[in-house]
Amino acid sequence: MIEYALAITSLHRARRLLALSDNFAGLIEEFSHAGHKNWKPKEFPETLLLEAESGILIRAEQENIASEMRKADAGNIVLQLLMGGGKSSTIVPMLAAYLSNQEQQMLQMLVAKLGGLLNRRVYHMPFARHVQPGEFEAILMRKRLEECMANRGILLVQPEHILSFKLRAVESALTRQVCAQSLLDTQEFLDRVSRDIVDESDENFSVKFELVYSMGSQRPVDFAPERWVLIQEVIGLVGRFAPEVKSQLPDSIEVRGEYSGGFPRTRLLRDDAADDLLMRVARHVVEHGIIGLPTNLQTSTIQTALIRYITDIDPAAEVIQAVEQSTFWTKSTESPLLLLRGLLAGGILRHALGSKRWRVNFGLDPTRKPQTQLAVPYRAKDNPSPRSEFSHPDVVILLTLLSYYYGGLSDQQLFDSFGHLHKSDQAAVHYNDWATSPHLPVAFRQLSGVSIKDRQQCVAEIFPYLRFSKGAIDYYLSFLVFPKAMREFPQKLSASGWDIGAIKDKPLTGFSGTNDTLHLLPLTVHHLDLPSQSHTNALVLEYLLREENTVEVLSPHTSRTDAEHILSTIVRMKPEIRVLLDCGAIILDQSNRQVAERWLDMQDRTVEAVVYFEDEELTVLDRIGRTEPLHTSPFAKQLGSCLVYLDEVHTRGTDLKLPRNYRAGVTLGQGLTKDKLTQGMN
């Protein structure tokens, strides 16, 4: 049987060599991988079957990594392998098949690799807080896990599923539910028998990865509703002063006022602009006062101390004494002053406007279950995290405001706002704050001229000028969203990626394409440097510094969209660019489909189609506008006639066999790390 499997692998190799007969570089590379040099097929028959099933030969460096990870006495370790080295597609199935014989994309890949000749069943057990198992369901889950172990199966789980199960077991014990003991016993069983393999360990062990279970009865956030009203006033001042800062420091701040009467899209690029902008806001607040805080009535000495108090991260003792022991410091002014201090000195405004990008790091998620109208974290461009939430209430309020300022209100949200407005005693006053666009027809600038019963007129003639109105958005959020959504809990349970790396009876092994975050690994996990991989970092840098790599600085922003601006630039570049990797996530104004269509239109007829991601699936768009999944398309074997566009989230983990002469364009953006850049480029 072993000889028969070896014959199959030899046949596959012969076919690959024949297919590469016109590709000298590919032929040399294939000849260099003879296979079976540093391992014996008789000792690892599962690996041999994987080769025969997948039509591959395990490379020497892949076996070196796998051999280290097979060791039972190595402890919890993480190893480095160059991006594109087959960590997910080859090494994970090798290890899963071997270790199971001892005592979506990944799911599809494991089933494809292990479900054939290797005859390994892949079990999938997602778990989240909304799953409320009773005693019977808890026992059934335990039996399912025991079945997986008895059948030498592989259990595929997301990191959040592991942490969610841990927290659910603890929560059930604290609340004395009948299933508590069964869940705790199952967790103990997993800690005792599981042998974990962690892919993309730098991401899964990140200190930013945290799962929280809130406990207790909901209650309004402290200082509500004044909390969000004051933040709305402050962010309004940001919109007022941002263009002034832009005129003085054009390279340090990005300001785009796309909608008249709305809030300009503002992004802090450098500290000098942030310092200038925040100081302007602070001086205006103190010198002119703000809702609930009549600072304009104070003496110049107190005003000077107040500016220092709300802008200095570590104010001098005399400043603190001057403010907190003055007659101005009362129960009614304490909370707004501390809130201002958090926004300005504490870095919350700087964080929201500088470190967070709309539709890249945060935004709305209308498809989330249960629904929320608050801003949620994004994993990448237009890719909201399924269950994550921002924990700091001021950050939530700020990012929610920005999400609606930049994205606008929907027709239904505006109808809801008008419905609430008509019940108000100050409806006309509030509407005057909405109707600030100079393009709004004169007939509709007074509330009496608006009839919400005429829905067609509202949608066609009124709403386009109110959709991005800061006044309308503030009203909608203040009365219809924040009072219901801005709640907090007295206690919480928390687990992080470090809990995945906890010491258990059997070791954990993982790997990543870079070792940039090795100093941030859990204390229970150590990085293992293999001599055979010591060159990896240098090789990555060598790829980046090759002579054929050039840097193209985009011309200043024009009236064209970001996508049009970038596409027109790369179309002019020589040699021709056939692959666009948006690692910097700078194409935000168009969908993947729109970018693909426009890029294809700019190319000559020798380019027949474009490959891109749509609904998490590789899709092909051809010249006549027809789309189909790549794996069922004839273009799957004709990528040499295709363009390829990958948005930020899919630059990592996507494997396409492209012609060796293809040239790629890679976008760079503020805050792009070496890790993300190199992962996306390999």
From TrEMBL:
Residues annotated as domain DUF3638: 36-245
Pfam families reported in the protein's UniProt record: DUF3638 (PF12340), DUF3645 (PF12359)
Gene Ontology BP annotations: proteolysis
EC assignment: 3.4.19.12
Record carries keyword Protease: yes
Domain annotation DUF3645: ranges: 365-400
Enzyme class: hydrolase
Keywords, comma-separated and alphabetical: Hydrolase, Protease, Thiol protease, Ubl conjugation pathway
One term of GO molecular function: cysteine-type deubiquitinase activity
Reactions performed catalytically: Thiol-dependent hydrolysis of ester, thioester, amide, peptide and isopeptide bonds formed by the C-terminal Gly of ubiquitin (a 76-residue protein attached to proteins as an intracellular targeting signal)
Name of the protein: ubiquitinyl hydrolase 1
